[in-house]
UniProtKB/TrEMBL annotation:
Residues 32-384 form the Aminotransferase class I/classII large domain. SUPFAM superfamilies: PLP-dependent transferases. It is an enzyme of class 2 (transferase). GO terms for molecular function: pyridoxal phosphate binding; transaminase activity. It comes from Pyrinomonas methylaliphatogenes. Keywords: Aminotransferase, Pyridoxal phosphate, Transferase. GO terms for biological process: amino acid metabolic process. Signal peptide: none annotated. Its EC number is 2.6.1.-. Its cofactor is pyridoxal 5'-phosphate. The lineage of its organism: Bacteria, Pseudomonadati, Acidobacteriota, Blastocatellia, Blastocatellales. This is Aminotransferase. Belongs to the class-I pyridoxal-phosphate-dependent aminotransferase family. PROSITE patterns: AA_TRANSFER_CLASS_1. The keyword Transferase applies.
Length: 392
């Protein structure tokens, strides 16, 4: 039998990917599945971005690029942050990666040692603790249910020990959609700075926020609060480019250099063609983003209202991203004792796929993605409601 390394044996298979797989299997068997599982925009990549990739191909941009990415893309990223957030980063502080996921992987692997503690607020994106464990460090989870799933500086302060090396923040959050208010974010960074702790700010959902929340990046913080900060960014969600595998990291020069080493000896540069497309995404017109946001807004509004009417559901307002994260504990009765069992019943009886909150560290919750047409969303919620009424 195959020998699995100790490092990999410690990792869990991705629960979000498993939900995706289940939907694929059922659809292949001819079942009418409503899939509210995926964290993936249902929109096509905007045309002008595709055209840029086609031009890159025609122009022969099909070779290795510098590991950190082309100058063209790096200057696009720098320009985007300068225009939108008023901070001018140096070329040595920016690198392109194969998706936001690789930016986070590089940042963690380049920083933590075995025995280090890494603070991860709950509920968390499933990948954070897995990378931390892979790197030999210890995830230390912070409970945030009492503050409505938004992290506070006080909670961070209480979780810090002499072994704490890193804090991972994801706002807007996958799975909760919650947003940390900028003032609180600043206080968190003051605490981290005071204690010499590094921070990764995963800003993959940066542009998808709903009023009164506003688009905000940790890049706007004053320099002295960004000395130990890495921003992980992505084109996947903002421009519906999940399959292109393109993202970036912005961090102090020394951290970026260490991340570059990781990337040099693993994947090298992200795809040359995707880099050209991503540069166009940041440099080109942004009305495609506004159009997608408007459609997400419409679905979100309908969804929150509909979920609040389901017996046994409690719904915190998701202020960003494209997920609702209802508390379904009011529906857990008899055989259905856990959110996992609820999700299982939903698949089997209602042919509807959602994601179990337990995978995100929030047993009793489910994640519903509204990155799907309003019509399918409505059908899915109808099915969810039917099951909830039966149980509650
Ligand atoms: N961070 C969060 C919170 C996410 O939800 C995702 C994707 O689901 C990513 C990072 C990574 O996305 P990508 O690697 O496609 O840029």
């Amino acid at each position: 039998s195959f020998h699995v390394s100790a490092n990999v044996a410690k990792m869990q298979a991705s629960s979000t990917m498993m939900a995706m797989q289940k939907a694929v299997e059922m659809r292949a068997a001819g079942i009418d599945v409503v899939d509210l599982g995926p964290g993936e925009p249902d929109f096509d990549t905007p045309e002008h971005i595709k055209q840029a990739a086609i031009e890159a191909l025609r122009a022969g941009e099909t070779k290795y690029t510098p590991t950190a990415g082309t100058r063209r893309l790096l200057t696009s990223i720098i320009g985007y942050y300068e225009r939108n957030f008023g901070t001018r980063f140096d070329l040595s502080e920016v690198m392109a990666t194969a998706g936001g996921k690789q930016a986070i992987f590089n940042a963690i692997v380049a920083l933590v040692d075995p025995g280090d503690e890494v603070l991860i607020p709950k509920p968390y994106w499933v990948t954070f603790p897995e990378i931390v464990v892979f790197a030999g460090a210890k995830p230390v989870f912070i409970e945030t249910e009492e503050t409505g799933f938004t992290l506070t500086a006080e909670q961070v302060k209480r979780a810090i020990t002499p072994r704490t090396r890193l804090l991972i923040i994801n706002s807007p959050s996958n799975p909760s959609g919650r947003v940390i208010p900028p003032d609180e974010f600043r206080r968190i960074m003051e605490v981290a700075t005071e204690h010499g702790i590094y921070t990764i700010s995963d800003e993959c959902y940066l542009q998808f926020v709903y009023p009164p929340a506003k688009v905000w990046s940790a890049a706007t913080l004053p320099r002295e609060l960004r000395d130990r900060l890495c921003i992980a960014g992505s084109f996947s969600k903002t421009y519906a480019m999940t399959g292109w595998r393109i993202g970036y990291a912005i961090a102090p020069r020394e951290w970026t250099s260490a991340m570059l080493k990781v990337q040099q000896h693993s994947t090298s540069n992200p795809t040359s063609i995707a880099q050209r497309a991503a540069a166009e995404a940041f440099d080109g017109p942004q009305d495609c983003v506004a159009a997608m946001l408007a459609e997400y807004s419409r679905r979100r509004e309908w969804l929150i209202g509909a979920l609040r009417e389901i017996p046994g559901f409690r719904v915190l307002e998701p202020e960003g991203a494209f997920y609702a994260f209802p508390d379904v504990r009011g529906c857990l009765r008899g055989e259905v004792k856990t959110s996992a069992a609820f999700v299982q019943r939903l698949i089997e009886e209602a042919h509807t796929v959602v994601t179990d909150g337990a995978g995100f560290g929030a047993e009793g919750y489910i994640r519903i993605s509204y990155a799907t047409s309003l019509e399918r969303l409505q059908e899915g919620v109808r099915r969810i409601r039917k099951l909830a009424e039966k149980l509650a």
